Fold:
Amino acid sequence: MARPPLSRIVVLDDYGDAVSGAADWSGMPVEIFRSHFPEAELAERLQGADALVLIRERSAVPASLLQRLPALRLIVTAGMRNRTLDLDACAARGIAVCGTNSRASPTVELTWGLILALARRIPEQEQRLRQGGWQQGTGLGLEDATLGIAGLGRIGAGVAAIGRAFGMRLLAWSPNLTAEKAAAAGARLTDKDGLFREADIVTLHLGLGPATRGIVGAAELGLMRPGALLVNTARGPLVDQAALIAALEGGQLGGAAIDTHHTEPMAPDDPIRRAPNTILTPHLGYVTRQNFRLYCEGAVECLRAWRAGAPLPRPLNAAAQATWEPTA
Structure:
C-alpha cells in the first residue's frame, strides 16, 4: 500500500517568522501560521490539512482537535517529547507522529542569562541609568553562593556545570534523583525542603506531570531565605503562581525570573505582569537559530520520507513505523 500524498502541510505558531529560512521547504505544499489560534478557530483553519508541523508545545493538539481533522495523516513535532499532543488519540486514528533533534544548550544558556540578570539586578539598574539615575542597591555575587537545582536531567546538569565554573556550592533534588547522579554533576543530593531552605538561588528543570504540577507552592517558597531568588525555565505550572506573587509582594523573595508561563501566549491581564522584582521572558529557552534549524530540517526530512514511502525518521508511535510502498 502506498502512502497517500500530502496536499496541505501546515506549520503552526511561527511567532517570530523563524521557520521559512531554517530549512529547504521547496516542492512541498507548506503553509505557515504565524499567529496563535484558540482550538475552535484552529480546527476551522486546518480543514483539509493532512500534515502538521508543531513548534514545541505552542499549540495543544488534544483528541478533541484531532477528531475534527479527518484528513490528518502525519504530525511532526519539534523535539522528541510533546506533552500537549495526544499520542493515544493519534494512534487510535492511525496518525503517524515523528520528532526531530534538538539541543539542550539554549535553555541552559538562557537560564544563566536570567540568573545573572536577576542576581545583579541588570534590568532594574539599566532602566534607572536610562532614566538619568545611577547605581542603587547591591547585587548577589555567585562565587560561594548556593545554587539549588530542581531536576538534574540534561538541562539541569548543564546548568550545574556552569555553576561549578562560577565557584558556587551546588545542591540538587528531584523525586528520583540519586546521590551518585548528583555527585557526578558536582552537586550534593538533598531533599526538597533542604533545597529551598539552603539555596540562595533555586532553578527549576523538572518535567511537568500530575506529580509535579504545583510542586513549588507557598510551603516551599516560605522555606526560602529572605532575598533568595527563583528561576523557572522549565514549565510555568510547576509553580503556584498566586503563592509566588504573594511571596514577591510580601518581600519574602528577592526576585523571580520566569521564562515559562501558565498560559502561553500570556494574556495581557495576567497578574504576573504586575508582580514586583521579576524578569519575564516569553518562553525563549529553546528559541535559537541553531535549534530552529534542527527542528525544521528534521521536519522536512520526515515530510520527504513520507512522500518517498521511506521509513520515517524518529518515529514516536507505531503508525510512524508502518512500512509503505513509495508513492508514484
User: Anything to note?
Assistant: The chain has eleven helices and twelve strands.
